[in-house]
Design goal:
Two copies of one chain form a homodimer. Chain A is mainly alpha-helical and 143 residues long. In chain A, 52% of the residues lie in helices and 6% in strands. Chain A has a domain of 95 residues: Winged helix-like DNA-binding domain superfamily/Winged helix DNA-binding domain (Arc Repressor Mutant, subunit A), CATH 1.10.10. Chain A contains six helices and two strands, in the order αααββααα. In chain A, α4 packs across α5. The longest helix of chain A is centred in the last third of the chain and has 19 residues. The relative contact order of chain A is 0.17. The interface between A and B is large, with 49 and 49 residues. The first copy, chain A, binds a DNA duplex (30 and 30 nucleotides) through α3.
Chain lengths: 143, 143
DNA sequence: AGAAATCCGAGTAAATTAGTAGGAGTTGAA
DNA sequence: TTCAACTCCTACTAATTTACTCGGATTTCT
């Protein structure tokens, strides 16, 4: 079980965006260069982040992206949910309701996934982008 | 982010094994039938569980598997770690140490994965197989 | 002897992930 | 007013991982 590059790259990119945001928007290519991520792949991620309302875009030359909210109002969970989909599916069998436990909404392993889900959510929803940005500023960028 | 069939099937199988353990060993084929999982796939999973010391095997006719420890001494985390590998890799870049953060053992996103990891571990290590077995007995098997 | 089981490793099909490519539309500035 | 720097969008492909299957060897009870 691990987080995909979407989540990893996206989170780094959002931190980068926070760190390098002045008054002007930040371009994807500058983030990509600093973070050593492919331009076109990052584009895709920002498409999702924009659609989810976490960033704003300014088109055209000298355009780029900005955080849509203050970084203390964006949690790591917000970001990861957009990029990773559900952080932990809670269904028992697979993605959909299974024949073997259709009637009862109870099921042993579902209980387990529920607990794991709660653990993850508690962690990521209490971590704010602002914290990461501050830390990152102190520590000279990096991965 | 989700748990693969290895983890899901394996957990169900371990609960099943606990529920149906009397004095005799329980065969893979019987578990597979009750849980609607392919025999040969389950075999693989039990291979891992055995190697990890969570189950014992008895070979030959009328052979099968038994829990290696009392179910209250086996946590869900024990099982999932065996079947899923690390529950959450904590490295920042990918699987290995990356050039971009080799020197400092600090890195912003690594901090995030660490927190997520702690959340997951806290959840699964406090859930005991015995609890699931008891619940499952009450609720007529199922997924 | 023979059936019922574990054991073991190789092979494969399907799904997902990761990343590319190409081009259309937008805008600021020379 | 043209050009370059951007976002935006969608389709495609390569690589990796997952989810199995298959065949056979070995062990052991009856």
């Amino acid at each position: 079980m691990k987080i995909s590059t979407k989540g990893r790259y996206g989170l780094r990119a959002m931190v980068d965006l926070g760190v390098y945001s002045k008054n002007e928007p930040v371009s994807i290519s500058s983030i990509a260069e600093r973070q050593q991520i492919s331009d076109s792949y990052l584009e895709q991620l920002f498409g999702k982040l924009k659609k989810a309302g976490l960033v704003l875009s300014i088109r055209g030359a000298q355009g780029g992206y900005q955080l849509a909210r203050k970084p203390e109002e964006i949690s790591v969970g917000d970001i990861l949910r957009v990029l990773e989909g559900d952080l932990m599916s809670v269904t028992c069998g697979g993605d959909e309701e299974e024949h073997s436990c259709q009637a009862s909404d109870y099921c042993v392993t579902k209980y387990v996934w529920q607990k794991v889900h709660e653990g993850i959510i508690a962690a990521v929803d209490h971590l704010l982008l602002s914290e990461l940005i501050e830390q990152s500023k102190g520590f000279h960028g990096g991965c």
